Predict the structure.
Amino acid sequence: MANIQSLLEKQSFNELTARQRAQALLDIGTFRELVDPFQQVTSPWLVKQNIVPQSDDGVIVAKGLIQQHPVVVISIEGVFQGGSLGEVGGAKIAGALELAIEDNQKGIPTAAILLLETGGVRLQEANLGLAAIAEIQSAIVELRQYQPVIGVIAGSVGCFGGMSIAAGLCSYLIMSREGRLGLNGPQVIEQEAGLEEYDSKNRPFIWSITGGEQRFQSHLVDAFIADDRMQLLDQVRDYLKTGKPEIYRSTRYDFFLNRLLNVDTSEQITPEQVQHLYQGES
C-alpha cells in the first residue's frame, strides 16, 4: 500500500514507467496484469539478432476499474526498443482489445485506454509487427462501437508509424505538451526528404509541427493537458462518463482530404497555417 501511495503522490505522468502509468489510472486495488513478466513471454526474434529481450516485450496489459467502470489499460514502454511493436507485444494489444470486445458482447461494458509511446513497427520483426498493428486497428474499430477507446500520448517518444493510424481510430485522443503524433518520425523524414525539409535535431521546430499543443490547436486530438497524473485521470474519467462520440474523426476523411488539397507544397507550411487549415467548418 505504501508503494501505491507513493506512486499516487507523483504528479508527473511522463516520469512514470509504463506499468506505473497503468497502475496510476486504475482504482486502487483493481490492477490485474495479463501475461505479466513472470510468464516470460518474450520476443523469439530479438535474441537471434543479439538484442536482449524484455520479459513483457515492452507492453503492459492490465484489467481493472476506473470509478467502477471496467477497463483494460494497454501501456507501451517507450524506453524499450523505442516502444516499437513486434509479434508478442502486438499480439498482447490485439488480444486484449479482442477480449474487451467479448466482454461487451457478454454484457460487461469494458472500455480501453491506450497509453501510446511507440515508434510503430519494430524493424527486426517488420512483417509480424505490421500484421499485429492491422489486427489492433481492426479491434479498435470494433470495440469503439460498444465503449470508448481512449488514446493517450503523453511522453516524448510520441506515437508514430502504424500506431499513429491506430491512434487516429480511437474514440478520443488526449495529448500533453511533451507528446508528439505523426505518421513518420523526424529522422525518417529527414532521411527521405533532406535536412532542408525536416531537421530532426531542431526540437522546437519538430514540436511545433507534431507536438501535443499543435495537434490540439489543429483539431486533430480532443484534449490537451499538462503533464499531470490527476488532470489526465480526470479527462479519462470524463470521456468514460460521456461514452461514445457522435462522430468519429476517422469518418470525416472527406473533410481532411479536401483540406489537404488546398496545401501549397511548393513551400514549407508553417504551424499557424496548419492550424488555420483544419480549423474550418466540417
Remarks:
- The radius of gyration is 19 Å.
- The domain at 2-181+221-251 is CATH 3.90.226.10 (2-enoyl-CoA Hydratase; Chain A, domain 1).
